[in-house]
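Lab meeting notes turned into a lecture example. A postdoc, R.K., suggested we walk through two folding results consecutively so the class can see how the record format repeats. The first protein's sequence and structure tokens come next.
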Amino acid sequence: MVSVEGALGLKAEADDDPPDRKWPRMLSDQPSLAEPRAAATTTNSWLTRRFSRRSDRTTAADEAQTAFLQKPFSGPGTTAAYARLLPRLLFADRQATSVEPGNYAKIDMPLALLWGRKDAVSPPPEGERLQRLVPGATLDVFAGVRHTPL
């Protein structure tokens, strides 16, 4: 099984009463705002290098690394696709199956979790929690790696 960003929608252990995100969600769902927002941030090739510098690096990504990071954001229709995806990443559906920790115990296939020790987006304790929730899951934590392996 491949799980990408597996911990993003998972309810936090002390998240009994999540904040009301009605207005931010409504704004993020507006098509007239969604694509310009994605174009200005997520798929903006100029920002790729700047974002790589803002993490725990002392230097920005080099040209080859920047090209690698930009590749998924450069295809036709990518900006529109990310505009549709971002609200779901930022505002998890509180009714989704993946929100409830108990549902992870129902996963009955091998699951290998790969995590970066320096990941600030999904810190290692989130990977450790997923490993505890999924029977038989393995967790490999890579030293010196952040959210992406570059």
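The second example is placed directly after the first for contrast:
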Amino acid sequence: MRALALAARRVRKRMMMISLLYVSRSALPPREQQRALDEIVATALRNNPRADVTGGLVFTGRHFAQNLEGPEGEVTALMERIGRDPRHRDVDIVYRESIPERQFPVWAMAYAGPSTFVAAHVLALADPAPPAVRQKAAKRLIGLMRQFAEAHRIARERESGRPL
């Protein structure tokens, strides 16, 4: 069984990897947001490693923005499930590209809590704009998500007493 899992992982690594960023409107009532976010993150932490998917999530209270990366088929299947998820409305893929390596290599799902700081960046993607403007805004948001994930990783290492 273990040999089969390792072989499957090697095959997935040879497949084309993509990075995808979507923005959606939240359908969550304020009183249910924290419970639902905890559930989303727990599900991602449980399922994403099996699918070889990594990424980061931002929630502004009104919108989700999530960067997913991994084998194209796995990311596409995950996006289909997200598109059917009643917690999301108006799911819009704002950025998609083939990638040679991951931006979130150690994160099944990087999430450090609600962020009002990035709300303006998410809103810029939620509104219609020319493709070049959206692509630039998407890359900027992915960069911010990476910075948050790295800062969170460093804080966790400091708290645990492990060396950086």
